[in-house]
Amino acid sequence: MLVVTLALAAVGFALLVVALMTGSVVWAWGCIVVCVAGAVLLLVSALAGKKAAAVPGQPTSGVPGDRGPTRDADTAPGSDEGD
After folding, report:
1. Are 27 and 15 in contact (CB under 8 A)?
2. Is residue 44 part of a domain?
3. Which residues of the chain have pLDDT under 50?
4. Which long-range contacts (CB under 8 A, 24 or more apart) does 36-39 make?
């Protein structure tokens, strides 16, 4: 969704440039509509990401497949390291 938001921002900027060059209010309103749509999409994406991070049992490091620190074989209970 972030890519779509960035694309909408680029389209909005292009519409703004066209509106300034032509002096047309229609292009300016098009820029406003596209930018508001991008802002709403960014807000929805941020809220969905926050909700997904709050799910218990999911890794919080952001690395796919990372389940947290693992135990080394040398420090496992019952090893002879502490004797």
Report:
1. yes
2. yes
3. none
4. 37/8, 38/5, 38/8, 38/9, 38/12
Tokens of 15: 């519409």
Q: Answer yes or no: is 64 within a domain.
A: no
Instruction: Give me the number of domains the chain comprises.
Output: 1
Range of the domain at 20: 1-50
What DSSP string describes 12-27?
A: HHHHHHHHHHHT-HHH
Q: Is 80 among the domain residues? A: no
> Buried b / exposed e across 18-57, counting CB within 10 Å, b at 16+?
ebeeeeeeebbebbeebbeebeeebeeeeeeeeeeeeeee
The answer to whether position 40 is within a domain reads yes
57-71: per-residue pLDDT in tens? Answer: 655 555 666 565 565
